[in-house]
Amino acid sequence: MPLLGGIRPPIAVLCVLILALAGLTAKVLGPGSDPVVPKAVLSSQQHYAEDGAIALRASIDERVTDLQRTATALNAGKPAEPEDVLSDLGRTYQKWTGTTVVDLESGDVLAARGERIPLAWLDKDVLTGKSALLPRMVRLETGDVRLMTMALLDRKDGPQQLLIASNSLSVPPITLGPFRTMAVAARGGEVLATAGFEQSEALNSDQQRQELEFLQKQMSDLSAQAADRTEEHPVTAKQPGSRGYPGVSGTLTGGEYNGRVVAVGYASLSSSDPEEKESVAAGLGLTVVAMLPAVAEQSGATGRELYGLIAAGALVVLGLLAAGFLWARVQRPLLRLFLESRRLARGDLTRPVGAFRGGEAARIGNALERLRGQLGGSGEPNGPGGPGGFDGGGGARRAGRTRFGIRVQLVVTAVLLLLWCVPVGLLLNRTDDSVSVPATMVNDQRDRTDLVSDRVRRALNEAQADLVSTSRLVDVSDRDATENVLKDALRKHTRYGALYVVDAGGEVVARAGGDPHDWSDGKDLPLVRVSGEGGKRPVVQAGAPVPEEKGVTLVGEVRIEFLNSLLKRPGLGEVRVVDAKGRTLAASNGFLAFEELPRESLTDLVRAAGVQVGAGPVENGLLLRDGGSVTVAAAAPFSGGGVAADAGWTVVSWQNADRFQITAYEREDRSVLAGLLGLAAIVVCLGWVHLVVARPLRALATSAEKLADGDLKAVLYPTYHDEVGAVVRSLELIRQQLQARRQQQPRRPAEPRPAEPRPTEPRPGEPRLGAGGR
């Protein structure tokens, strides 16, 4: 008999799966040491580092783009003195620590503003080749590192000049929150800039200074490790199938001090979408590191963890009962049927077929006993030995159908196992709104929301600054030239959906892109505003007055898809931009134009965040417990400089706490997974038994009964080469024997029927016989 066929393999596989699931249950749900630092805290630091890397990359790329755009405008415009170039650049963009114009032919400095820029690093490799005019990191005599950005001024009627702008390579200006520090590391692990560390002079005790030294050393060591890991390719550094941040990111765990363990997240600078646009900043090899001393968790078993051992033991007991039930009610009778049928097929008719308890086995056993009587010559199928006749062994047996077949037995086995799967999956380790959420998660939700708010505000400010730069090229008198300028700007800046020039009366002078919307030039109206209420989508507009043209404004409509892309951050949940009335303007997921927030508590949070406190509104974080669930929410209004700060918008985010890698939620998920795995084992193994054994066995019972009733014409074919198939082959041999016996049995000649005497009429005078006469 094949080793992989029949009833034995599914029962063996079921036992193995039950034992494996019991061991897994005891491993993941039983007593064990919890991680020293919660996974949720580590993941939060990783997301924080990714946000910082995105902000730093966007800042560097914007500086390069702004300088190149300025150089392009100067090359296409009227000749200007170097001093005027730097003055105009400083008024438009307040982002560089120093600017310089250098004559390329003589090497003389023609103009300089701000911090002095050393020129010793300028050589042939910087100005020629594939890496020409790419940003360079230069160390000053003071030890500070500066990022040098260059652009070529090449006018038709003038000498070539090099415009150089330097700025400090500092940590992105984002909210770090309490106790968090951040650093920017170069290739090799050298820390170029840090933020969040307190000055040792401001500390009051030696213990605080020792802790500061410990954290600084940890930052240096872990930054070196992070920089080494970010040298890997993003594809090979991630797990197969993982998505999210396009660069390399991860977590590290440092040393422990005063009950706090250093949790670190790191991320390399990467392009926002490498398939569409390459990032200049991504080629600098920088790594952003976020570090937070987290409270170490105490490891040890709790009452809930003991439930895992109890569940594992209960699974072993129920599994053994289910396997024993299948062995006793399915496997053992099936093997007995195989032996009995083979004995009869070989001609051993001395012993009667043993009795079976019920189900298809009893039906087949009764049919075999009747066939034994037929093979022994005790009678025809309809005579002695036939149905209800002599059994050939001294007793009478009736072959009737039994109520409980193999399908009922499989259902009983499934119920035994479901007695474990259902309670474990639906009742064990269930959580409610009393789950303890680390305060770090609430703080990180608030700080990351503020970071997204700052990112959106800066993007709108950059959009308006781009319009200011482009407005210098607008010539109202030449419509065709102006439209060409607008088309070129629209092609270079994907953030705009439409660009158009509006005169003092509100009429569109020139346009490019989509259909323009109304724009009113009022003194009290902000340069960044929203319109389109009542339509299918909000219309976000930014304007810049055209120089020397009174009442003429260059208007750009920022695409909602661009704003939506700024809000999509892993680990932050649902993120929306709302106006002062709490109406949605953009969202990380789908939304309806100007719809309200889904919960009243979120609207109240937005209103509370907009309250003036001190210098202005501040971000707020909140832990909402309602309806058995826990939600972490935060709101951060636009604050800071730029024209977008006057829009009165707020970024609000929220997510369910069950997304966090908290021990309570992880145990609940593991319990559900254990129940699902048990259910899968039931479906696989019992479905295997049903397909391979139950269905062929039911068909065999019907065929055996027909054969015992005298149907010798139907040939029996085995479906599988297993126990059931062996019984089918034996029945086929018995059928052939019965058929041969019937063909060899001589037929009796028909006997003539005796003639009946014809009745005679009585003679006259003779009496007739009455009813009782003769």
TrEMBL record:
InterPro entries: HAMP_dom (IPR003660). It holds the Pfam family HAMP. The chain crosses the membrane at residues 306-328, 408-428, 672-693. Residues 328-380, 691-743 form the HAMP domain. Residues 748-766 have a biased composition (Basic and acidic residues). Keywords: Membrane, Transmembrane, Transmembrane helix. Residues 221-249, 373-394, 738-774 are annotated as: Disordered. SUPFAM superfamilies: HAMP domain-like. Residues 738-747 have a biased composition (Low complexity). It comes from the Bacteria. Coiled coil: none annotated. SMART domains: HAMP. Residues 374-394 have a biased composition (Gly residues). This is HAMP domain-containing protein. It comes from Streptomyces hirsutus.
